[in-house]
Specification:
Blueprint lengths: L4 E6 L1 H18 L6 E6 L3 H8 L7 E11 L2 E10 L9 E9 L3 H11 L5 E9 L13 E5 L5 E2 L15 E4 L1 H5 L1
Parallel strand pairs: 2-3, 2-5, 5-6, 6-7
Antiparallel strand pairs: 1-9, 3-4, 8-9
Helix pairs in contact: 1-2
Bound molecules: guanosine-5'-monophosphate.
Length: about 180
């Protein structure tokens, strides 16, 4: 384990098992619906890549980029940096997130996509920090793991753009961001 990691929250093997399970559920729930998986850049990329391998019905992918975090704190304001390319009218959307914390990002994106006429919107998130909620947001249908309100990195999750390449998710030691 890297010296800046306090504890491993999800090993790579556990992440693969989670993706197999969620992929199976999505396959059953979306037969003949051709869902559009919308990944939120950049953190969702590894999760999206693993998850889609386990979805066995027709599906498409697209990406959006929004920003709300600076360092380890949410800024409380969501800006859309990149929109989806696909026409989402009448589509069944699955928003793919790395982690839901305050709920702000996911709710803003749901409002944005909902106003464009999506038929349904569900959330698939690798991690959920329910204790962090500050806004009322849609409950994620597919959750990999609920965790304590600690700051985690790896498997897409960053600290100031670093550590996304770790193959597992771990709690970042405080000295890394308190120095
Ligand atoms: P929310 O808007 O729900 O507060 O936060 C969602 C976004 O905040 C996530 O997509 C992620 O980018 C960032 N985030 C929230 N908690 C963590 C965390 O523990 N670690 C990292 N690296 N990012 C987080």
């Amino acid at each position: 384990m890297e010296n800046f990691i306090e504890e491993v929250v999800l090993s790579n093997e556990e992440i693969v098992r989670i993706c197999e399970k969620i992929g199976k559920q999505i396959t059953e729930d979306y037969q003949n619906k051709n869902p559009l998986l919308v990944g939120l850049l950049k953190g969702s990329v590894p999760f999206m890549a693993e998850l889609m391998k386990h979805i066995k019905c027709d599906m498409e992918i697209d990406f959006m980029e929004v920003s709300s975090y600076a360092g380890v704190n949410s800024t409380g304001a969501v800006t859309i940096l990149k929109d989806v390319k696909a026409d989402i009218r009448g589509r069944d959307i699955i928003l793919v997130e790395d982690i839901v914390d305050t709920g702000l990002t996911i709710q803003e994106v749901i409002n944005f996509l909902g106003s464009r006429g999506a038929r349904s919107i569900e959330i698939a998130t690798l991690l959920d920090k329910p204790a962090g909620r500050t806004v009322k947001c849609q409950i994620p249908k597919y959750i990999g793991l609920e965790i304590e309100p600690k700051f985690v990195v790896g498997f897409g999750l960053d600290y100031n753009q670093k550590y996304r390449n770790l193959p597992y998710v771990g709690v970042l030691k405080r000295w890394v961001y308190e120095k």
